[in-house]
Amino acid sequence: MHRSHDDRKRKLFLTLSVVLNLSLLSYFKYSYFFNESINQITGSQHSFFNHFTHFSNTFFGTTLSVDKLLLPVGVSFFTFQSLSYTIDMYRRKILPVENVFDYGFFVCFFPHLVAGPIVKAHDFLAQIYQPYRLDKNEFGMALFWILNGFSKKIIADYIAVNYIDRIFDNPNFFSGVETIFGIFGYSLQIYMDFSGYTDMAIGIALILGYRLKTNFLSPYKATSTSEFWKRWHISLSSWLQEYLYIPLGGNKKGTIGSYIAIAVISVFMILLSGKIWLIWLMIIFALLLTLCFIFIPKVKQSINTNINLMVTMLLGGLWHGSSWLFLIWGGLNGVGLIIHKFWKNISPFKNSEGKGTRFLLMLITLTFISFTRIFFRSSDVETVNTIFYRIGNHFGADLIFKIIEGYKFVLFIILAGYLIHWIPEKMKERYRNWFSSLNYWGMGGMAVLIVLIMYQFMSGEMQPFIYFQF
User: Which of 75, 117, 222, 325 has a CB 3.0–4.6 Å from the CB of 235, allowing a cystine?
Assistant: First the structure.
């Protein structure tokens, strides 16, 4: 009886925590979106948020307006960590922290707060209560990661300012060849920018005595979309897998949560489009799915698995922002994962371990991932259409050598970035260990040299980290 009562309390606590965290996240990240979408659908100038503002003004003597909403720094990341704490307690993976300050420290640990890596409660909380320790080799490794991340950020800014931003800001001015170079350049830029931040976060945390897990594992070495998402933003991918994909049923079954998630995504799609008729389309789709489950039960598990996978990627897209472009980006990656699931069963390469085959599959994966990022990087649908139009109708193959000559230095930096990225992991471990084994004077000298070299690449104005906006 006591156990049953305790379980009910834990479920209630979990429910309240999830609702509160997701409500706060939705309010700060999606208020503008819901305000604009409801106005678009109803054609009214007074949405729910306007009524809420009037209510606030009447009863409290203040004015609250959506256009004055300030987004808290790192809201997405500390919400995910707060949810991790609650869910891990519910699953009995961790015990409650000793006091509220320990909880606040876990959620607001500053090195990774703004752009990750996302830290799970069961990976971090135990470290709070351990004595501080940091030997010379660990200090050297921490300094290496800080310098590595700093260098990545500077190079990412350089190629962005001198090439990539120009392509995406004014795609009509560039040929298809220049655009394709820009697309692959952006893949390198976002990797160096994002992983550069997390490298520095890992290094700073290590100096403070906390060990954060690796967040990127040379993702452009991946030979499939599935492998890519095991190497890219590992903390988010593993968070979504552990706290969303598996609870939805994973690759085994569908759950009521799967269909609630589909309903949420459908609401976003209707609001994004502003088309009421989409509701009927969603109802028809739901009926067809139900009939399929009834009359073709053998495909039910396969459909549920793919639904769970697609839902996870679509929600991952919406997490980045309330836009058709992010939704399409998430959906394309979901399609890529589903296609790979079927492909690996019939692939003629599955028993081939040749370097040539791996390199070919790696290039195919990189190309697919890079082209999905057109939707991620573009500011609007018109930009996306223009980019594809320039590639399809103004390719400019005859200009390729002139383009390479004109942008030779920045294109050389992009190529060098990919070549360094593709260096075997064992070789990377060697030079990391070599750096961490230097004496303090050696480390200091190397640090000064790296800073002086990177200073030559610094743009006039430092660009914000790409993931600060999320």
Answer: 117
Q: Which residues form the domain of 353?
A: 137-420
> 167 and 110, same structural domain?
no
Tell me: do 121 and 240 sit in the same domain.
no
Q: What residues contact 17, with CB distance under 8 A and at least 6 apart?
A: 82, 83, 86
Query: Do 65 and 91 belong together in one domain?
Result: yes
Q: How far is residue 325 from each of residues 199, 296, 314, 376, 392, measured CA to CA in Å? A: 28, 34, 11, 6, 20
What is the model's pLDDT at position 49? 45
Domain match, 122 and 153 both: no
Identity at 188, one-letter amino acid code: L
Percentage of the chain modeled with pLDDT above 90 = 26
Three-class SS state of 67: helix
Which token pair is 290? 């139900």
The DSSP secondary-structure symbol of 463 reads: P
Structure tokens at 3: 């156990």
Summarised one tens digit per residue, pLDDT across range 59-102 is 444 444 455 666 666 677 778 888 888 888 888 888 888 888 88
Residues designated as active site: 320
What is the number of domains present in the chain?
A: 2
Written as six digits, the tokens of 395 are: 């390719």
Which residue stretches of 208-323 are H helix? 225-231, 234-240, 256-273, 278-295, 300-320
Note whether 179 and 266 are same-domain residues: yes
**Same-domain status, 189 and 50:** no
pLDDT in tens, 32-49: 666 666 666 565 444 444
Distance, CA of 143 to CA of 112 (rounded, Å): 16
Distance of alpha carbon 384 from alpha carbon 183, whole angstroms: 12
Write down how long the chain is.
Answer: 470
The model carries a pTM of 0.83
In a domain, 445, yes or no: no
Contact 231, 222 (CB under 8 A): yes
On whether both 205 and 321 belong to a single domain, the answer is yes
- C-alpha distances (whole Å) from 179 to each of 173, 279, 326, 450, 467 are 10, 37, 20, 31, 23
* 311 part of a folded domain: yes
In a domain, 117, yes or no: yes
- For residues 199 and 335, membership in a common domain is answered with yes
Q: Is 329 helix (H, G, I), strand (E, B) or coil?
A: helix
